[in-house]
Each structure stands twice: as C-alpha cells, then as structure tokens.
Amino acid sequence: METLISVLPVYFFIIIGLILKKSFKEKIDEKSYVILSFYFLQPILVFWGLTRAPIDYAFIMSPTIYLYAILSVIFFLIIISKKIFTDSKDRTIFIAVSLVGNTGNIGVPLGIALFGEQSVAYTSIINIANMFFIYIFSIYFFAKDTFTIKKSVYSILKLPGLWVAFFAIGINYFNVPIHKDISKVLEMGAYSSMVIQLIIFGVYLSEVKIKTMNWKLSLHISLVKHFILPIVGIFFVLQSDLSSFVGSVILMQLMIPLAVNNVNLAALYNCKPHDVTASVLISTITFSLLLYFYIHIIKYFLGDF
Fold first, then answer.
1. What is the mean pLDDT of each run of 10 residues along the chain (305 residues)?
2. What is the dihedral of CA 258, 219, 268, 69, to 10 degrees?
3. What is the pTM of this model?
4. What residues form the membrane-spanning segments (predicted)?
C-alpha cells in the first residue's frame, strides 16, 4: 500500500497535463514546455542529484552496473531492429526509447518508499547515468535521421545538461561547499523539473488515439524494457560485489517504466512523439501490473531490503 501511495503524485500531475490540453487545446504549446524542461530545469536536476552524496565505491559502481546492463542490451537492439521494423523512424524509436527508464519521476520516490531515504543518493546518481545515456546515445539515434553524424555529435555537445553534469561532479569531487540557501533553490528546481515532465507527458497523452496506436512498436518496447533488461540487470548485479541493498536499488531502477524524456526528444526531433507517448503509456501500465512481482523477484535474488 505504501508503494502504491508513493506513486500517486506521479499520476496526479500526468492527469493535470491531460486536462490542461483537453481544456485549452491550441492555447497549450507543448514544445515550449519541452524546451523549458530540457534546457533549463533538467540541468538543475542534474546538478542537484550529483551533489547530494559524497563519491565512494558504491556511489560509482551503482550507475556503472546500470550502464553495463543498458549498453549490453542496446547492441542487441541495433542488430534485431532491422528484422522487426521496416520503417526507419520505428527502428530509431525502438533503439533510442526502449532502455530509457523514468529514473527521476518514479525511480526516486519509489526508492524512498521501498528502501528509505538512504536510497536517494543511489537513485539520484543512477538517474544521472540515465541522463548521460539519453544525452549521448538516445539523442544520437534521434538526431541521425535528421542530421549528419557530425551535426548529431554537435547537437549533443550543445546540451547544457551534459556540461552541468561534469561541473557538478567536479564540485562533488573537490568537496566545494554549497550554501544551504542555494541548495534549497536547486532542490526546488529539481522537483519543478519532475513536475513539468509529468505535465508534458499528460499533454501528449491527451492526443493519443487508441485506435491508431502503433501497437507493434509499443509492445516490442515494453518486452525489452520490462523483461529483457531486468534479466540482464539481475545477471550484472549478481556478478558484482555490492551490498544487497545497493543491488536492489539498481534492479528497481532498471525495472521502472519508460521516461517522459523520451517524449521530449521525439518532439524535439520530430520523430513520432505521439507513438512514443503511447509506448510510455503502455510501459507505465505494464510496470503497474508487474510491480508486485518485481518486488518478490528482487527479494528472491537479493533478500529482504
């Protein structure tokens, strides 16, 4: 029950976005929200997350194992995508979207509900690793259909979140103190980023037509996200020497549904944003149905947390 209650605010803000678009229609310009989130609020979230806990072994290894699992699967997706999809944009979405979880909006509060506040440091750094994956790999695949490889790389280097992350790591490594008032402002910006992300998702969700949904794409993405990736993640976690607590946090972050950030990228690069929104919706429903079983799977392999 506590777990279900912890994710209720997530669905609340999604519904707010849906109602806004349904009520005001053309008065709501979703791309303006995307730009505000992607270029301003998310860099604040990145900085806040990377300066919350000191850098130690577990702090470094938790995102490393997370990325090991994701990168192992992405090469598999690149190989099989041409055999599954004939449309180039569907292939792009399949590769770029399938592995990007909602590590911020759902991962952080769910981690608190399951593992307590001591999980925040690990869920935050895994969220940053997820953003690195988005900024480097997802954006490359989205941009390559619109731009040349050179321009795709250049578009990555222009992203403020990437440079803010390097800056935040430097601040953390050298133990540069952050004034409590500045820290409070950063926290406000970070939570604002999460809220507006959910509202953006609700706005795009309002335009999804069930009859015209790309079911083949959505179901294949959910198969990868909720079955293949967790299996790979269990393998890597069991091979590591991390504590069962940290391993449990990593596995839960690999199991959570697709990120709303996927919708942002699809909108920015004009790559079927409504199909991506539908895939996020299917993934979120699938996760809600599997959450009970996920918890027992984690306990079976790693013990109580």
1. 63 81 78 82 84 85 95 94 92 94 82 82 86 82 70 70 86 91 91 82 76 90 97 96 94 92 82 90 90 90 80
2. 50
3. 0.81
4. 6-21, 33-51, 57-80, 92-115, 121-143, 155-176, 188-205, 217-238, 244-268, 280-302
